[in-house]
Amino acid sequence: MAVHYKDIVAAAERISGQIRHTPLLESLQFNARIGGRVLVKAEPLQYTGAFKFRGACNAVACLGDVNHVVAYSSGNHGAAVAAAATAQGFKASIVMPQDAPAMKINNTKNFGGEVVLYDRYQQSREDIAAALAKTQNAEIIPPYDDARVIAGQGTLGLEIAADLKARDIKPHQLICPTGGGGLLAGTALALHESLPSLDIIAAEPEGFDDFARSLTADKRLANQAGASSICDSIVTPTPGKITFPINRQHVSGGVAVREEAVLEAMASAWQDFKLVVEPGGAVALAALLSGAVEGKDKTTIIIASGGNVDAGLFRDALKRL
Known about the structure:
The chain is of the alpha/beta class. The chain is built from 14 helices and 10 strands. It folds into 2 domains: 5-50 and 148-318, Rossmann fold (3-Layer(aba) Sandwich), CATH 3.40.50; 52-147, Rossmann fold, CATH 3.40.50.
């Protein structure tokens, strides 16, 4: 299940024309606030509103002789798998928590997914998905611990590298929202091929800093059971079995940010970059704004990983302006 740079290049060729090459956005006003140069990779503009569509498209394109897929997700991965599967004429069953944002549940249904709800505090989504796959002869597409998915997410890193080269920009660091570590792993593999000295930093919500703690301990650690966060898209129990070894090799470190900092980052993304970013997608920007990562006199790449946020929560974020 190892993933290599060549797998990401193959994924880019395989899903070319299906995904959107999203821009690197820059704001002079924001640069002045930070005291450095900041470029934001705008994945809220991706099809289905998040980077997850990349991995879903590649995983579906790699399927064998099946016509039914199963995924488990708090929202973005589920919607992406539903959209990618439906485009190929496949059925998609998506296991989602009952407390997932209504927008994400509706998105998944609208993209053609059959939603199966569960209690995230009492039930195992993996067990539910496995039972569905067995009874319906379907294939499971995990949200991050899957070589096909990681390679697809890595296409984001290829785009960043190409755009930096075209603009003759040499960045010092990249900050990436991190849950299970699939986006982080794919992006790190892609970027370190051409930018081996680039510092890559994982950003997580406070209370869900399992990746940062795992890096320090040099082994996979879990988050406290029963905790909750507005950053639903990156609330995972522990780093992935496949993603952690990759990230341990490529990632410089990890930081955790408070929910208030995340809301402020969402407001800043809207004000400065004209982007709607969901909480989990805003943690990298929050890490820079809050000072958890220093940006002064540096060129920093920020990944804004998704923009699927309920209207009420987004209004609450904008009150910080």
